[in-house]
Write a structure and sequence with these properties.
- Helix 2 packs across helix 13 and helix 6 runs parallel beside helix 7.
- The protein folds into two domains: 171 residues, Rossmann fold (3-Layer(aba) Sandwich); 144 residues, 3-Layer(aba) Sandwich (Rossmann fold).
- The longest helix has 17 residues.
- By secondary structure, the protein is of the alpha/beta class.
Length: 334
């Protein structure tokens, strides 16, 4: 796919270092071998060296020796990272003993490696639940200054290229926040606009979606979207944002002409902001399955350094793609 190839090529030029805490998982090793072989990113693999070497030999991998491999139980920076964790969390009454224990957890260690400046981003979730991946991220890496909410966007690549940006959309939030309030929804819109611009090179045209278009239905849920659109416009008057809009009004020009004449989106949205996680998650899965779209993500937005969470059903190619995207996000955060 042309878009993903472009993202990978940019990642190669950036030469970022990404940490993979699930270093003994077979799909992770297969993906790591491909990433290292193609030069998409430098990698730190967390796991017992002998186990990684044994698995790599069984899988006939040729490039794993290009990675840095750290055993969470025994490595030269263990004390340094434990002291860093203690310093960050002592106001929450964490003891040094607790810090030394937690630093042996690969998910905590990965975030500390990033916090210390030894890696640029992280990809995990092939065997760990989302909550377990995000907990140390929120505690240690935290959010971008001025951003209070982390959200999850999917890059949707359509077979029908007449919609969006030559068939490309960003959908959000599809992964994190069940019921965002208006202020949070506005932040999600602004964050997703940034992702669309920096990762995909798009000029974002953002539609705040609802089951109403420009007051066609009166309901508190529609009012929330109207308020969110107004807040987002105040935050970023330079962005093209409109709402509330029904989905067909947002993406079909002829429908927009009749339902929302004068809309700045005019049926050409390439960023769709859903009013709830329920709506966003259902929408991306339906588009993926029924329209045959490729859904890449979720791409987490709002973290001070990029930490991305995979589905536990992910493929090797999903991991490769998300590492490339993470490298691009790391460049954005510089």
């Amino acid at each position: 796919m042309e878009l993903l190839n472009t993202i990978k090529e940019k990642a190669k030029s950036l030469n970022k270092c990404i940490v993979l805490p699930e270093g003994t998982e077979e799909r992770m090793l297969l993906a790591a071998d491909k990433i290292l072989g193609e030069g998409i990113a430098r990698l730190i693999l967390l796991g017992e060296l002998s186990k990684i070497e044994h698995l790599s030999k069984g899988l006939n991998l040729k490039n794993i020796d290009k990675a840095i491999i750290l055993d969470p139980l025994s490595h030269e920076k263990k004390e340094l990272y434990a002291e860093l964790l203690y310093d960050i969390r002592k106001h929450k009454e964490m003891t040094r003993d607790e810090a030394f224990k937690l630093v042996e957890d690969p998910l905590y260690l990965a975030t500390l490696i990033i916090k210390n400046g030894d890696a640029d981003g992280e990809v995990a979730g092939s065997v760990n639940a989302t909550g377990d991946v995000l907990r140390p991220a929120f505690q240690i890496v935290k959010t971008v200054p001025g951003v209070s909410i982390v959200s999850g966007a999917f890059i949707m690549i359509m077979k029908d290229r007449s919609y969006g940006e030559d068939g490309i959309f960003m959908f959000a939030d599809c992964a994190v926040n069940p019921a965002p309030m208006a202020e949070e929804l506005a932040e999600i819109a602004v964050s997703t606009a940034g992702s669309a611009k920096k990762i995909l090179g798009l000029k974002p045209r953002i539609a705040m979606l609802s089951f109403s278009t420009k007051g066609s239905t009166k309901h508190p849920l529609c009012d929330k979207v109207i308020e969110a659109a107004a807040i987002a416009k105040r935050k970023r008057p330079d962005l093209i944002i409109d709402g509330e809009l029904q989905a067909d009004t947002a993406i079909v020009e002829k429908v927009a002409e009749s339902k929302a004449p004068g809309s700045t989106i005019a049926g050409n949205a390439n960023v769709l902001i859903f009013p709830s996680l329920e709506a966003g998650n259902i929408a991306y899965k339906l588009v993926q399955r029924l329209a045959g779209a490729d859904a890449v993500g979720p791409v987490l937005q709002g973290m001070a350094s990029p930490i991305n969470d995979l589905s536990r059903g992910c493929s090797v190619e999903d991991i490769v793609n998300l590492v490339a995207i993470t490298a691009n996000q790391a460049d954005e955060n510089k």
